[in-house]
Write a structure and sequence with these properties.
Keywords: Electron transport, Membrane, Mitochondrion, Mitochondrion inner membrane, Respiratory chain, Transit peptide, Transport. With about 190 residues, this protein is an alpha+beta fold. It has five helices and six strands; from the N terminus they run ααααβββββαβ. It folds into two domains: about 10-60, no CATH class; about 75-160, Double Stranded RNA Binding Domain. It is extended.
Length: about 190
């Protein structure tokens, strides 16, 4: 590409931009050089016209209001026997027995019932034709999980979260001679 000198009206704008280092031979220079000499060039408006459009106030007549959420579940492509006859269990997972943390017990999960399984004759693995039986969905609240299940018309059961009761014990019981209340350090 050859860089042509811009028309006389644009010379001052291009010279200032070239001194600042913001104008290099390329698209902007080609655009400015292609402008006719009788057209006044305002470089600032070329770069901020989109910004000004975004800042302009939107009139109420342009807004679209939607009364309720649209239901798109018939468009999923999932076979009917996977949708209508589903049983779902909503629960909070138990704490990991190998660790003392309870971080994994704060989210609600959805687990689907187990459908027909068979042993694969080739490798001996368990096989299933149901893709949803191995899927586990996680939600932050019980209400979100119930809303999702009801939206998909699945029957469900809720297993409430069990909060363990702390054992009431004094600090002095750690040093007791009674073996039933004393905690061993071995």
């Amino acid at each position: 590409r050859s860089w042509r000198r811009p028309p006389p009206r644009c010379v001052c704008v291009c010279e200032r931009a070239r001194e600042r280092g913001s104008l290099r031979p390329g698209r902007a220079a080609t655009f400015l050089s292609a402008l006719p000499t009788s057209l006044p060039v305002n470089v600032r408006s070329l770069s901020t016209s989109t910004w000004r459009l975004a800042e302009s106030p939107v009139h109420d007549s342009q807004l679209i209001t939607v009364d309720k959420k649209l239901d798109i579940t018939p468009l999923t492509g999932v076979p009917e026997d996977h949708i209508k006859t589903r049983r779902v269990r909503i629960f909070v997972p138990a704490r990991n027995a190998m660790q003392s943390g309870v971080n994994n017990t704060k989210k609600w999960r959805i687990e689907f019932d187990t459908r027909e399984r068979w042993e694969n004759p080739l490798m001996g693995w368990a096989s299933s034709a149901d893709p949803l039986s191995n899927m586990v969905l996680t939600f932050s609240t019980k209400e979100d999980a119930v809303a999702f299940v009801e939206k998909n018309d699945w029957s469900y059961e809720i297993m409430e979260k069990r909060v363990p009761k702390p054992k009431v014990k004094s600090y002095g019981a750690n040093y007791s001679w009674n073996k039933r209340t004393r905690v061993s350090t071995k």
